[in-house]
């Protein structure tokens, strides 16, 4: 998910989308679904990944989350107008409230503001758990005007947080009691620093074919030698996000048709991101009762996130065709039906 999820639905005002970014966004969203598939919290033990060779590389959401934080900041940028920034914050806040209100209907515990919207402490999550990411982005976006008026402050803050993170800040519970965490704030600030480089210029600088194997080699080496070093977690997440971006660039360069076809699903990623945890839980519990054998089948487990993504994509396209008025509230696409919303 990024803060540039606001593609206009009107052809007259439409801006071209970068297919390689949307390609990477699709891959990152599927990786998040795989990660949540590894958690019994979401599957209710109805689906289990029994193969270690599947579970280990997929049970790490940090590269995908780093990609989303970096791109959220990059597509916001330090030169965004106050009106457009306010529109983005409003759009994110509306969909955040709508989705968490919908998921609150399924909560079995307290229905306090903290429990439903996840702004409390002591491990409280939003009702729609994955949207803690959106909660953090909203908070970070509110700080952009400060960095906009004092550009050097963003660089100073970035360096200061790196020092704090390396020497003092504990890694555990990064987004449970700290909103947002230093880890995520650093990634967001990195995106703001990169926003000084135009998108096509950035893509041109990252086209060297050696970069993908180099990033994978560094991640592998780090995991083998530096697994207990806290700072490595941040480096690994950043390298993982870079790898996702490089994969999108390579796809556009070497398989442009495939890249374009996959990228068409990019606008649906927010809807899928917001709804996938509930879908996983519902389908898992159903399978637990109806067919436990299918739920533990390796081939099914590997294909299940693709099925979840495909179902979300189908729902998005049906909504766009039949009920586009819902898109700004559920899929973060299009204009809010309010005058002068600032969403362009």
Describe the protein's architecture and organization.
It is a single chain. By secondary structure, the chain is mainly α. The protein has one domain. The chain contains 18 helices and no strands. It has helices at 19-37, 40-43, 52-58, 62-74, 82-104, 113-117, 132-141, 144-149, 151-167, 182-194, 199-205, 211-225, 230-254, 256-263, 269-290, 292-295, 298-322, 327-330. Helix 4 crosses helix 10 and helix 9 packs antiparallel against helix 10 (182-194). The radius of gyration is 20 Å and the shape is globular.
Q: What gross morphology would you assign?
A: globular
- Distance between the terminal alpha carbons, to the nearest Å? 18 Å
- What proportion of the residues is helical, as a percent range? 55-70%
Total number of distinct structural domains: 1
Number of strands: 0
User: What is the radius of gyration?
Assistant: 20 Å
Unreliable residue runs: 2-14, 170-177
């Amino acid at each position: 998910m990024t803060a540039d999820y606001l593609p206009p639905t009107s052809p007259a005002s439409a801006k071209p989308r970068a297919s390689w970014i949307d390609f990477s966004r699709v891959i990152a969203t599927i990786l998040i679904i795989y990660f949540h598939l590894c958690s019994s919290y979401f599957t209710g033990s109805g689906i289990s990944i029994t193969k270690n060779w599947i579970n280990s590389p997929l049970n790490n959401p940090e590269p995908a989350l780093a990609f989303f934080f970096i791109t959220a900041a990059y597509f916001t940028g330090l030169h965004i107008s106050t009106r457009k920034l306010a529109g983005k914050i409003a759009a994110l806040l509306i969909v955040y409230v709508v989705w968490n209100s919908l998921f609150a209907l399924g909560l079995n515990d307290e229905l306090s503001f903290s429990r439903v919207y996840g702004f409390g402490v002591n491990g409280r999550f939003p009702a729609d758990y994955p949207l803690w990411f959106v909660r953090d982005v909203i908070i970070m976006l509110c700080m952009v005007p400060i960095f906009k008026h004092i550009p050097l402050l963003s660089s100073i803050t970035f360096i200061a947080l790196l020092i704090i993170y390396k020497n003092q800040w504990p890694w555990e519970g990064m987004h449970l009691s700290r909103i947002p965490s230093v880890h995520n704030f650093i990634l967001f600030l990195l995106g703001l620093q990169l926003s000084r480089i135009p998108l096509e210029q950035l893509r041109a600088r990252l086209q060297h074919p050696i970069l993908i194997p180099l990033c994978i080699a560094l991640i592998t080496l780090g995991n083998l030698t530096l697994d207990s070093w806290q700072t490595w977690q941040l480096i690994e997440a950043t390298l993982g996000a870079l790898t996702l971006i490089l994969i999108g660039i390579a796809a556009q360069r070497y398989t442009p048709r495939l890249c374009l076809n996959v990228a068409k699903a990019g606008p649906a990623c927010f809807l899928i991101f917001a709804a996938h945890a509930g879908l996983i839980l519902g389908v898992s519990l159903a399978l637990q009762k109806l067919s436990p054998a299918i739920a533990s089948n390796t081939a099914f487990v590997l294909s299940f996130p693709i099925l979840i993504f495909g179902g979300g994509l189908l729902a998005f396209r049906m909504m766009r065709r039949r009920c586009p008025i819902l898109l700004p509230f559920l899929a973060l696409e299009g204009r809010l039906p309010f005058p002068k919303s600032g969403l362009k």
